[in-house]
Design goal:
By secondary structure, this protein is an all-alpha fold. Among the domains are: 43 residues; 80 residues; 94 residues, Methane Monooxygenase Hydroxylase, Chain G, domain 1, CATH 1.20.58. It is built from 11 helices and no strands.
């Protein structure tokens, strides 16, 4: 893949444009460092605000103990914020390192100041790489969720974007340039590794969820989400055999759901003696089977079975029409005999 690999999966952030416009006006805003205390203070303020809002709503509704559900809701918010603090702060620090590892502040101190800033940026890229590797190891641990791999994918995307910009600008030369290129290649490998795992695990979870859904529309909607997950990874790695096999399997599942739905409706109509309606519904099933992306042997076997059912229903329909015609003739002949 080329140096623009990261931008194919995620849109490039507009911060580079806004930063250049701010620098053109001669004022670069001071970025705030991530603060764990600030994060917890924000969580406490949110929980307190939620408590009073719920308390006021319950009091207005005439609740006798409004403090109980309001306090419970506020406690849940605090617990969730506390449990997510490590992940949120780790990602915030990594983003901070990435953003400031490529900043080029306006300088009036000459060549010595430029060398210091390049060294500073290089060290921050190294720190960001270590943070990504640490989170990668945590995502690869047993029992991790697909979302953990997606977090690493997003961090890798940010890192790749920053290093690609740095390599294009020629900010790093010599040993530092080699180190940046090596880190870029390492993160690109991590990006692929975690993106493929996320696509595999997330699509499997969605497919299992689709299989357990009761309504046909919900089954197809959930399966389509799994298909979109696979497609997002295939846009970057179109030659991955496992991804392509998963896409075919999900497509077959969607086709089987649609076909089974129309076959079931056709069988109900045939059971009730509505042969024409049953034939039309079998034709709908045949349409979806031939239109969907399924294996040729599956399409052939299913088509042959449905066509046999259609032919059998046509035979019944002709026999039924013949019986109705004979009964009509007997009725007319019987009527003529009575008149004589």
């Amino acid at each position: 893949m080329g140096h623009n690999s990261a931008d194919q999966a995620f849109p490039r952030s507009p911060r580079s444009h806004s930063r250049s416009s701010e620098e053109a006006r001669g004022r670069v805003p001071r970025a705030r460092m991530p603060s764990s205390a600030g994060y917890m203070m924000a969580a406490v303020i949110t929980a307190v605000a939620l408590f009073f809002v719920l308390w006021w709503m319950l009091v207005s509704g005439g609740d006798e103990a409004p403090w109980l559900p309001a306090g419970l809701a506020a406690s849940v918010v605090l617990l969730v914020a506390l449990s997510a603090r490590e992940v949120v702060m780790r990602r915030a620090w990594t983003r901070y390192l990435l953003e400031h590892g490529i900043q080029e502040h306006s300088s009036s101190s000459g060549e010595k100041s430029q060398i210091r800033k390049k060294s500073y940026s290089s060290s921050l890229h190294s720190a960001a790489l270590r943070a990504i590797q640490k989170q990668s190891g945590a995502a690869d641990s047993i029992g991790s969720s697909p979302e953990a791999h997606l977090e690493v994918v997003q961090l890798c995307h940010d890192y790749l974007t920053s290093t690609e910009d740095a390599m294009r600008s020629g900010s790093f030369t010599g040993e530092k340039g080699i180190a940046i290129k090596a880190g870029h290649d390492r993160v690109r490998a991590l990006h692929k590794h975690h993106l493929l795992i996320w696509a595999r695990d997330h699509s499997r979870a969605l497919t299992r969820d689709a299989q357990q859904r009761a309504r046909i529309s919900h089954k197809i909607e959930t399966a389509n989400r799994a298909l979109e997950c696979i497609d997002s990874a295939l846009r970057l790695y179109p030659d991955e055999i496992e991804l392509n096999e998963s896409k075919v399997a999900i497509g077959e599942f969607i086709a089987s759901v649609r076909v089974a739905h129309w076959v079931e409706l056709a069988e109900r109509s045939a059971f009730k003696g509505h042969y024409r309606r049953a034939i039309n519904r079998y034709k709908d099933a045949l349409f979806y089977l031939r239109d969907m992306n399924v294996k040729e042997e599956v399409r052939t076997a299913g088509s042959e079975r449905i066509e046999r059912e259609i032919e059998e229903l046509r035979t019944r329909l002709r026999a039924d029409n013949g019986n109705k015609g004979r009964r009509a003739d007997e009725h007319l002949s019987g009527g003529g005999a009575d008149e004589s």
